[in-house]
Amino acid sequence: MIVAVPKEIKKGENRVALTPDVVKLLIKSGFTVRIESNAGQNASFSDENYIAAGAEVVQNTSDVWSNADVLLKVNPPSVSEAKMVKQGSILISFMYAYTIPDVLAILNERKAATFSMDAVPRISRAQKMDALSSQTNLAGYKAVIAGANASGKILPLMMTAAGTISPAKVLIFGAGVAGLQAIATAKRLGAIVEVTDVRPETKEQVESLGGKFLTVDAAGGKMEGGYAREVSKEFLEKQQALIQQRIKEMDIVITTALVPGKKAPVLVSEDMVKSMKSGSVIVDMAVEWGGNCALSQKDTTVTAHNVIIIGESNLPSHLPVNASELYARNISTLLLHLATSEGFKWEMEEEITKGSLITHQGATVHTFTNEILAKMAK
After folding, report:
1. pTM given for the model
2. Is residue 158 classed as helix, strand or coil in its secondary structure?
3. Per residue in 141-166, pLDDT tens?
4. Would you tell me which CATH number, out of the four given (3.30.1380.20, 3.40.50.460, 3.40.50.720, 3.40.50.300), belongs to the domain 2-129+320-377?
5. Buried b vs exposed e over 193-217: b needs ≥16 C-beta within 10 Å?
6. CATH number among 3.40.50.720, 3.20.20.10, 3.40.50.300, 1.10.10.10, domain 151-313
7. How many other CB atoms sit within 10 Å of the CB of residue 268?
8. Residue 10, phi-psi category: left (phi > 0), alpha (psi -120 to 50), beta (remainder)
9. In this structure, how many other beta carbons lie within 10 angstroms of the beta carbon of residue 374?
10. pLDDT reported for residue 227
11. How does pLDDT run across 90-141, given as a tens digit for each residue?
């Protein structure tokens, strides 16, 4: 089978779906690999690196798309890209399929099968395919670095002949993969870290990394697959009151809260921003999905009420080498699970296949995607 990697066209995207090392692995497994010219340039992988790894570098974009059996991407395909897909071919990428119904329609017209990296089940045997975790892990690190860079303060305690500098205080919303990495990074840099999460069972993880878990005396979120789906009104009110009290003292606030298939919850109101110290920083990691801060703007850094609000929607792209390396391992592991060089296995009831397959034989078959699209149509 011919596996092809087109150059990402999303503005500000620096990642690439395959790195030269992973190209070698796929070629060794019997695949033919084609890379669009300069696809890896922004991640410091040259065309020469890919040629040395055994890949064919293709100059024409349409040739990459129209002659591939399998297309590997980072971002969801655009309408124009979907129109170039070869009839009956396979595409694997982040899809967030419920956000691109127009693209799904085109892919179904072309009877393309698509697998979504954001839909890979979070089960033990799929850990090496979990691109959401690998990318948000890097994003959590970068969020702290971005916040520290924008802040007018250093993070660690420092004792000098001129006096002692107190450590910075960091508040992190959410103790998922991104939040836990943000805790670890902020602690390594010497900050005092406080964390809030609707899932009480995350307290132990937070404290193991040196963070202080802000406890609310009320019933927390109901769990489904490790994610909070529902929070009691009493809990929400008490959590908001505690946050309003603590946020006034913070130098950096990092928000990571997302609800799959829905707009990100607003956790930091304008009144909270007004109460923060002059020169403090908010890094809104949920800005791609509407934002956790009422004043954040996508892909823009704004200053409101003397608070710097960073709304960078693609933090992993600011670490393109590592992000591409991890993503390439994730997507190649999924490909090798789904297929051999002779073709796809199509084990339709197998958990990883069933969980990540979005479109197949002209229809959208992914249950969660269909549920969200049905709600949107009402």
Report:
1. 0.93
2. strand
3. 999 999 999 999 999 999 999 999 99
4. 3.40.50.720
5. bbbbbbbbebbebbeebebebbebe
6. 3.40.50.720
7. 25
8. beta
9. 10
10. 46
11. 999 999 999 999 999 999 999 999 999 999 999 999 999 999 999 999 999 9
Residues of the chain with CATH 3.40.50.720: 2-129+320-377, 151-313
The structure tokens 């129109």 sit at 83
Banded pLDDT at 218 (limits 50, 70, 90):
low
DSSP string across 15-78: --S--HHHHHHHHHTT-EEEEETTTTGGGT--HHHHHHHTPEEE--HHHHHHT-SEEE-SSPPP
- Report in angstroms the alpha-carbon separations of 131 from 135, 174, 203, 260, 364: 6, 19, 25, 16, 22
State the Cα–Cα distance between residues 58 and 3, nearest whole angstrom. 12
Evaluate whether 254 touches 143 at the Cβ level (below 8 Å).
Answer: yes
pLDDT bracket for residue 219 (50, 70, 90): low
Residues with a known catalytic role:
122, 127, 130, 133, 227
List C-alpha distances in Å: 185 to 2, 35, 65, 193.
40, 35, 40, 10
Cα distance between residue 110 and residue 107, in whole Å: 5
